[in-house]
Structure formats: C-alpha cells, structure tokens
Amino acid sequence: MPNVSELVIRRFQELEVQARGIRMGNTQGQGSKANPEQFYAWASSAFAAIEGSFGSNSPHCKNFQKQMDSIQNNNVWSKQFESFCGIFLGAKNDIDGGYLFDLQQAVSGELFGDFVGSAKAALEDGHYTVASVLACAALEDALKRYAIANGLNVDDQTMENVVNALKSKGLVSGAQKSLLAAMPKVRNAAMHAEWDKLTPQDAGSVIGFVEQFLLAHF
Length: 218
Fold this sequence. Notes:
Low-confidence stretches: none
Radius of gyration: 24 Å
Order of helices and strands: HEEHHHHHHHHH
Largest sheet: 2 strands, antiparallel
CATH superfamily of the largest domain: Nucleotidyltransferases  domain 2
Strand content: under 5%
CATH architecture of the largest domain: Up-down Bundle
Number of helices: 10
Shape: elongated
Number of strands: 2
Mean pLDDT: 84
Number of domains: 2
CATH class of the largest domain: Mainly Alpha
CATH topology of the largest domain: Four Helix Bundle (Hemerythrin (Met), subunit A)
C-alpha cells in the first residue's frame, strides 16, 4: 500500500497532466483563454492539494488564492493561466524535492516537543509516572517516524523491534545506541501501568534522551 508521501507525489503528478489537457480557446482580438469548465475543475483540485500539503498560510497557497481572486467574468487568459501553472509547478517541485516531508518532520518535532514539555512539567510536580508515560509515548512515535523516514518498515512493531531495526541499519550508534537499549524496558513498564518498576530517574532519563533525539533528527 502506498504511504502518504507517495500518494501526495502521485496526486501532484496527476494534476500536472490534467493542467496540460486544459483547452485554450482563441477569442478574436483578445488572445486565448482557458476552457472554464476544465480550468475550474483543475484549479479546485490543485488548490485543495496545495492547501492540504502546505497549509493555507504557505506562499504557494496564498499566491494561488490571489490569482483566483483576480479572475474576472470567469475569463482566465493565457498569461494568467501560465501564472497558475507556475505556482502549481513551484509547489510540485517542492514536493518532488522532499521539502514537504522535511517540513512535516519539523512539525512532528514541535509536537513531540510539546509532549516532552508536559513530561518535564509533570516530573517537576512529582508525577514521575505521568512523566514517564508522556515521554515514552513521544519517544516511541519519534523512533517509528525516524525509521520510516529512512526506509524501514516498522508498522505495528514493538519499540524493541524498532530500536533493533535502527541499530541494524546503523542509524543509531555510540552513546545513543547504549542509552536507547534501556528505553523499551521503561516504555513497557510505563504503558502497562507497572508503576512499581518506574523511578523518577527513569522518567528523567527518557525525557533527556527524547530531547537530544529530537534535536538531532527533527
């Protein structure tokens, strides 16, 4: 089954082909303009793809919307159509170049950072079991995302299996490798509510590791 990245790339490829198929009709003395039915069908899908991929505040999305707002009487003349295509192809180039997925990784890092911040606050308040759960959840998801980004198939795998997969591919090494070896044990205790097996030091070690891991990879 294709992953999300492959589906996004494929959709932009389809829309590029669709744009090339839009008919340009000649209007006497005024140049050519795009077939309205074909253009709006394409533009609606293209805008949805750009907004869904980059967000409504992205330059691609804002520029596309600005062009849409400038259309008068449903007439999209050849020069304006070229502008639409230029904006779309700029977004597609970013998709093809991996920019989107770098952005997604950065956003993931921010979300994980929120988890870590909450874990640190819980630990400071003396709730080390809560801190352990939050930190372990962030670590497990971060490890899986890092593994997937590096071409590893870790769907439905345990943290221990994910760690072993990362080690076997040389994606973790040195001190990080040694520290990571102890994390599945803490994770299992935290996620299975085996509170007697956890200590404040366990929570602190996971939090510290996650922070360093996010800085290094997200």
